[in-house]
Amino acid sequence: MPGQVSLGSYTFVPETKENLDWAELITLDLSKYNTPEGKHELAQFLIKALREKGFFYVKNFNISQEAVNRQFSVGRELYELPLEEKLKYVPEGLDQGQFNGYVPAGRRILDEKSGIRDRVEIYNIPKFNGDFKHNHPQLIQDNIEEIEQFAKLLHSEVLDPLHTLLAIALELPEDYFRNIHKYEVKSEDHLRYMKYTKFSSEENEALGNKWVRGHTDLGSFTLLFRQPVAALQIRDPVHNEWKWVKPQDATLTVNACDAISFLTGGYVKSTIHRVVAPPKDQQHVDRLGLLYFSRPHNDVVLKTVAESPVLQREGFTQNEFEKSGNSTPTVEAWTFAKQKWQRRKDVTIEDKEHRTAQILPGFREQIYV
């Protein structure tokens, strides 16, 4: 049995010096959260950010930069493991939508002519609430208590406040969304280490500099820790223009996802985003991401929150499923249907039939360019 790996320190690469077309995003300062006045101010900022951009920054969320850096170090060391070791942790049923564990690169064909495949590796760690098996490489097992503490802090220090603020903005009881996102209840939340291995300049040219096409996430909120390698772009929901997301010191970048859109009848849009080739002064490095995906409890039915006075006044009373007359799915049914679509192997990035596929009766994906 090999000895425990020392994580060492983590050094972020320098930010790009290129003058990119950065998105202007709102920053929520959670240091204001502990007073009624602060909560209501933040709630108004949040709903404005969600309605106008879909992405926003969060700062002062009570998790030290040292703790964040430790998780990046775990991710770095994880992807240094031999491929044959990582492949031991590919989930059974990956093609059917299972996702916890290791998802290898190369499942998508990015350019049909050249045959270039994606170089995205994913490692997902589910909740630590007793509902999931935790079978991990030794590196993860050696640091599992720290990983568990980190994941639980993201829930209590970031997600609970965001769910409270969303409820206030929709004139619902403060605990409305917290009550369907409790950590101890089964849901498909997960922490993710994600690596994008670089392409050559010739490969990027063949790909049209696009690594991951425009898409939406399927849950409630996605939390993305500061990543200096610029590659994330969002499509402004108001003007439909693609903008770069700038890495901000000591912040989380957060986006709204499909479940929140369904629950609000489309009042909050699921944010469209993509990953493109970094600017030329960063194309020589790989890109390591640290993310957390929040989802409502598995048994929650994704119907519009009809009791919200805001949604009633604004006329957002039905989501896609309700408008279609089809049955409204539970979060569990929705999650695995969309994951199965996402994990389809050997699909080409230009496959329009796949990119507009029916996920469940009443909902089709769209092409985002």
From TrEMBL:
Residue ranges annotated for the Isopenicillin N synthase-like Fe(2+) 2OG dioxygenase domain, each copy included: 209-295
Pfam family, one: DIOX_N
Coiled coil: none
Sequence ranges assigned to domain Non-haem dioxygenase N-terminal in this UniProt record: 28-125
Protein name according to UniProt: Clavaminate synthase-like protein
